[in-house]
Amino acid sequence: MDKKVICKYNNTDYTAEKVLQTVASDNNHYFASSTNNIVDAFDNIIGQTTTYSPAAKNLVITDNIGSAFTSESDTDKDRKITLTLDKTTGEWQEVGKFEIQIDKNSTTGWHNTNDNFSYSYTDNISSKEINKTCTKNPVVYWVQPEYGYTIEYYYSRRK
Could you tell me the pTM of the whole model? Predict the structure, then answer.
């Protein structure tokens, strides 16, 4: 005895197979299967849908260097470092790195290493340009050096 599952789709009775055929984007995306070939059907689906697609393209990161810092990577002295990546893979990728140096005459206290940073990229699915700014800045505590000199004051009384 052959059993069929009946489904309602758009207020019409259909077999499960007919529903799947109807909702598939085309005939190449519907696969009939039985208990004998279900594994082959899934392998076929996986083979046709597993393609590399980057999460994002044209990534640009702009780091604004904190006011108490400098970097040799800031070649045009605009206090910005720009890093780029053509496309992301979904895996960890190093976009770039740079060093910053604190001005040794900075006052004792907390100093932002960044003055915010921003990033932009093209979303691979929607093709929209995404722009974000991060305002949470890492900080370092700096103790201003003390110089070993003595300041002497003299007073001369003139008559």
Answer: 0.56
